[in-house]
Amino acid sequence: MFQAILIEKDEQGYRATQQAIDDSLLPAGDVTVRVAASTLNYKDGLAITGQSPVVRIFPLVPGIDLAGTVESSTHPAWQPGDQVILNGWGVGETHSGGLAERARLKGDWLVPLPAAFTPEQAMAIGTAGYTAMLCVLALERHGVTPDKGEIVVTGAAGGVGSVAVALLARLGYTVVAVTGRASEAPYLKELGASEVLDRSAFNVPGKPLAKERWAGAVDTVGSHTLANVCASTRYGGVVTACGLAGGFDLPATVMPFILRGVTLAGVDSVMAPRTLRLQAWERLARDLDPVKLGLMTRTIGLDEVIPMARQLLDGQVRGRVVVKIAKAA
Length: 329
What we know:
Blueprint: E1 2-10, E2 13-21, E3 31-39, H1 42-49, E4 65-73, E5 83-87, E6 102-105, E7 111-112, H2 119-141, E8 151-153, H3 159-170, E9 175-179, H4 185-191, E10 195-198, E11 214-219, H5 223-231, E12 233-241, H6 255-259, E13 263-266, H7 274-287, H8 290-295, E14 297-301, H9 305-313, E15 320-324
Helix pairs in contact: 1-9, 2-3, 2-7
């Protein structure tokens, strides 16, 4: 038996509880991992609270991220004792995930834990930080270099936004952070933001074209915020879109794209190919300041996950939440 957060749905309703479960509840897979740490992401919050239909099968262990040690494997790439990371691939949605002391997974989904990180540090990065790095890579692929101008990061006090600010600043970009929490301005400047703007200027309907300002953007919000960012992006600029915290609609026009040559680059972390994942983690190990990572991280136990999920969705959580998992019995 081992401890896990379990989501169930039956005649008694939808619920998430912490309980002891056994291996019979683990899904099929060729690698079993003893989980050292997981994390709490926005998607995990939706799954645990049932606020959005993230979970597709029941019962299911949530947790789209995990880091741990291989216990057993029939996959040729992994041996007992290997330290690994898992991000995405539908884990925590259609396949039981990381908010448990043990997980069974497909070996093809795993990547090695970089030597630069402990399991807890890797989970401080998690899907949020890995997604932020994918956004940075997309900006670089499209030729957005630090000399091109300011980069705006929306939802900057959240997980993706915090890591994006820290990464971009470390790489020499001038970063402007957008947040709805004015009290987080000192935190965002400590991460490297040169300026902090209030989201009220972004989350309402704006002009089809606004004054040109941004050379690039990392948008985690969607809806009017993304539309306004596109409208104020400079000629030839690039906007990376990776989130929908403000809505999944895009009330925009084509004008920024056909009159200013703006590129809207979608960034997906869930099904990204292995080569891109390895590149992202290699760059995170090189380019993310561990001191800044510590500034944006808090650590909780498995027994704190369920109440923390609601706080996360209510916008009360800064940066990243690491879930330290006890050893399996």
